[in-house]
């Protein structure tokens, strides 16, 4: 018989109570979770072992979840399809994405905004869903929006360079340098930000995604709690953990994505908790 008990089974609940009585904190003592997607639940298109069961069990245990992603290539509709295909329970209201949050941010500033876009179809979809117009000429745009673009070309970089130099308001979906894929890491939106900065000396006026407090605040609001009462779970120290710490959330690093344990010392960013995978956060040894 296994010596491991999983939340919310009764033995795990009892162990959690005993831990709390001793004055020791555990992530499961909180009820609101902001969970990164890529590197925590999926690696590319492959589901990470145990993540489906972890989500099912968190919900069974009454925990409220928001799935938060800096992936600037995917829309909420695409994520819903991906979750459904992998039999992971999720509703549209549980997603807060860099793509949708970027569109919402601009829409709140200027509902009539015209956008010059360097990015993927998922970002384009969310911008159009927000009622914003995408234009082909940056000289007719109110905003330059930059995200990851798998079809990036020299001509696109040239146009982005000219847009940045023109002084147009410049928004980046997220600052991720690299991104976890099924065959290894791939370049993130940080590749574009870095290239444009190297050429112009100008950083984006606004970065919407993690570690920006903007996106964490949106997620906590959907959960109905303050960020201080939430748990942020992610695989990247510089975005998930650092962002969670900025908004005073409890932070959890999982080692199933980008960062390894040795990176903690190198980056000097320390999570409150660390587990190999999401499912391990729910495991308790038999008392």
Structural key phrases:
single chain, about 290 residues, alpha/beta, Rossmann fold, five-stranded parallel sheet, 17 strands, elongated
Report on this model:
It is a single chain. With 287 residues, the protein is of the alpha/beta class. It has 2 domains: 4-70 and 211-285, 3-Layer(aba) Sandwich (Rossmann fold), CATH 3.40.50.1000; 100-207, HAD superfamily/HAD-like (Rossmann fold, 3-Layer(aba) Sandwich), CATH 3.40.50.1000. The protein has 10 helices and 17 strands. The protein has a 6-stranded parallel beta sheet with strand order 6-5-2-14-15-16. Strands 8-7-9-10-13 form a 5-stranded parallel beta sheet, with helices on both faces. The protein has a two-stranded antiparallel ribbon with strand order 1-17. Strand 5, helix 3 and strand 6 form a beta-alpha-beta unit. The mean pLDDT is 95.
Number of domains: 2
The H-level CATH homologous superfamily of the largest domain, spelled out, is HAD superfamily/HAD-like
Order of helices and strands: EHEEEHEHEHEHEEHEEEHEHEHEHEE
Largest sheet: 6 strands, parallel
Low-pLDDT windows of residues: none
The helix/strand class is alpha/beta
State the shape.
elongated
Q: Which fold name corresponds to the CATH topology of the largest domain?
A: Rossmann fold
Which architecture name of the largest domain does CATH use?
A: 3-Layer(aba) Sandwich
Overall mean pLDDT: 95
Summed up, the helix count is 10
Distance N terminus to C terminus?
A: 13 Å
- The level of helicity is 25-40%
Q: Give the strand order, joined by hyphens, for the main sheet.
A: 6-5-2-14-15-16
The Cα radius of gyration reads 20 Å
């Amino acid at each position: 018989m296994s010596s491991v008990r999983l939340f919310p089974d009764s033995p795990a609940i009892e162990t959690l109570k005993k831990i709390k009585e001793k004055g020791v904190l555990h992530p499961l003592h909180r009820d609101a979770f902001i969970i990164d997607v890529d590197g925590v639940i999926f690696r590319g298109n492959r589901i990470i072992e145990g993540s489906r069961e972890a989500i099912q069990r968190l919900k069974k245990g009454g925990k409220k979840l928001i799935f938060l992603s800096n992936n600037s290539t995917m829309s909420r509709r695409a994520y819903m399809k991906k979750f459904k295909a992998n039999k992971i329970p999720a509703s549209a209201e549980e997603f807060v994405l860099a793509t949708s949050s970027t569109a919402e941010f601009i829409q709140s500033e200027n509902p009539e905004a015209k956008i010059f876009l360097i990015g993927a179809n998922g970002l384009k979809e969310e911008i159009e869903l927000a009622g914003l117009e995408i234009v082909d000429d940056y000289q007719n745009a109110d905003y330059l929006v930059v995200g990851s673009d798998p079809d990036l070309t020299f001509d696109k970089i040239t146009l982005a360079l000219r847009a940045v130099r023109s002084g147009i308001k410049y928004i980046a979906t997220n600052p991720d340098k690299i991104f976890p894929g099924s065959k290894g890491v791939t370049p993130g939106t940080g590749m574009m930000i870095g290239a444009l900065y190297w050429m112009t000396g100008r950083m984006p006026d606004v970065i919407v995604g993690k570690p920006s407090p903007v996106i964490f605040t949106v997620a906590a609001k959907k959960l109905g709690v303050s960020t201080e009462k939430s748990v942020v779970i992610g695989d990247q120290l510089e975005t998930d953990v650092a962002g969670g710490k900025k908004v005073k959330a409890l932070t959890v690093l999982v080692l199933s994505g980008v960062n390894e344990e040795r990176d903690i010392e190198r980056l000097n960013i320390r999570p409150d908790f660390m587990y190999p995978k999401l499912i391990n956060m729910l495991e308790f040894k038999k008392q």
